Amino acid sequence: MTNISRAKAYLLILLSLVPALAIPLLIRHLPVETRTHNIAFKAEKYGYSPSKIVVNKGDKIILKPTSLDVTHGFLLDGYSLEFVIKQQGINYLKYLWEDDDGKLNADWDKVSEIEFVADKSGKFTYRCTQICGNLHPFMTGELIVRPNSPYHFAISLSVWIVLSGLLLFQANPGERSAVFSRINLFEVLPGLKWLVNRRSFQFLVLLPGVVIFYLFILSSLWGSPVGNRNIAIIIVWILWWFALKAIFVPLGGRLWCMMCPLPAPAEWLSRRSLTAVHYIKKPFKGLHHRFSGLQRDWPKMMQNMWLQNFIFLAMISFGIILITRPVATAGMFLLILVTTLVLSLVYRNRIFCLYLCPVGGFLGNYSMASMTEIRAIDPEVCRKHKDKCCYTGGSGGWACPWKQYIGKMSRNNYCGFCMECLKSCPKDNIAIFLRPFGSDRVLKGYDEMFNVIIMLVVAIAFSITMLGPWGFVKAAANVTESRQLLPYLIYLAAIWGSALVVVPGLFTLTARGANRLAGKPASDRDMTLRLAYMLIPVGIFAWIAFSLPSVLINYNYIFSVLSDPLGLGWDIFGTADYPFNPFHPEWIPMIQGIVLLTGLYFGLSRGFLALKTIIPNSVARGKAMLLPSLFVLGMVNILLKLYMG
Length: 645
Ligand code: SF4
Ligand code: SF4
Description:
Largest sheet: 7 strands, mixed
Strand content: 5-15%
Strand order of the largest sheet: 3-11-10-5-6-7-8
Number of domains: 3
Radius of gyration: 27 Å
Bound molecules: iron/sulfur cluster
Number of helices: 24
Shape: globular
């Protein structure tokens, strides 16, 4: 391979777009035969049989539904088809009629079979509308009406993006993929510097979260045991999870860590202060503060992400139980709270956040891609400043609770956005910067690489478990209700095995192959870690795509629990019975596809830039990108299949 000109690369990219669009269009216009499908349709906690119905556009579908346990519902996205399924083949079909005033009314017809024509092509989810148990929000099935053009376009465009990337890599786009470099937000947002330099700033940001958090614990323990009737479950696992993945991480990195209520009480206890700084002139153990407790340092051999990785895997092993059982969520919060308090009596700094928090692990790695950073304005000023108050503490601010020396900090991973260094720096040498997405690009150890792989594997595993149509997978994960230990153990083995052995093994082989193809310009370790960076943008966008349906489908529960936070029959704002009315659910697969393709683009482009310092030659770099590009293409296509296929 030799360098090609940028103009030639762009021309080839444009030309290759023609078949990328023409092939799905061609498939769309192939003639298909229509026929009638008679389907014995069974509903049973928490899935349908068949879980997937595949037909051609124009086919007639006759469903003969029955429930094998409790009453279930059926609402088909994109089609105005809704019915209730009871035992012994008794069903109630919803129909709308207009009264004399032109107002639409809903009524139900008792029927034994339901007939409709699949007149729209694509993928449509059918979902339960009757609260049938703990996993009710995940009881879904899929209707695929061929030709599934959105899916075909997504596959085709994913291949086109990879081909375009490989062409552009040969044309050496360098840093030109970034539209701007860095903007000091203190210079463009008047008042921001004043605001974040207030001693009370973090406390005031934290306070509402702390109050709400303790109310959530109470509601988890004493409110409704049904997940989607309990405010803690709805706000934490639908709203917060989505906001974390789609807003906080891409825009603000560890911004959430600044306002996280979980470690706050421990920090206040350790400092014996809510806002004030206790400064001592003579340093104690290198810092100008004395904390309560033993003030030990965390053992060096555990100063990495391995514990976080295992704790995260342990947590998601009970993922479906955690997010559907309020008492399990409360138990997890209380456990974290007690752990942070105990740790603060033995160790100084945010040990839990740095080395144990399961959420903090991926927040750290994913914040490498985020569009904000806190950094020294002029590292040279730091080099010359002997006291390093940002690290050791000053009279205006606490020593960095995350053990970071900002003069040399080049990644967001372990910066908790607490703003203490801004206050402790006497040289006014620290600012908040806006930067292009995907700016920190160096993973430093295999612990971090495993973390990004675990995150991607779990995004896929959760997509299968929670969004997929397979009732047996949900039953396996839902062990406390299904009481089937063997399927649960197989389920765990599949997740742990994929996250710790299969995918890391495949990725390592891919990276080694990339190193060989490029002429071995770096050690296999360096190459593997650099290339692993590609999985961060891909992972962030995969999690956004995964979280989207829970918000767009279940947003009504947010209104309901705001009026009735404990599920006790209150109606504070008159929204307790807010109807279940998914927001354009037929658009969701398409939006997910666009989100995944965006992640693919960022993964490839930022991965290429990550290689720059170890492979200065752009031709060799282009060769090194070949196999990893195929690897991420494969990963993205697994998710495309799950969401759109
Ligand atoms: S206190 Fe300020 S100038 Fe000194 S090392 Fe820290 S950030 Fe740099
Ligand atoms: S580097 Fe500054 S903002 Fe980041 S955690 Fe340390 S003190 Fe807080």
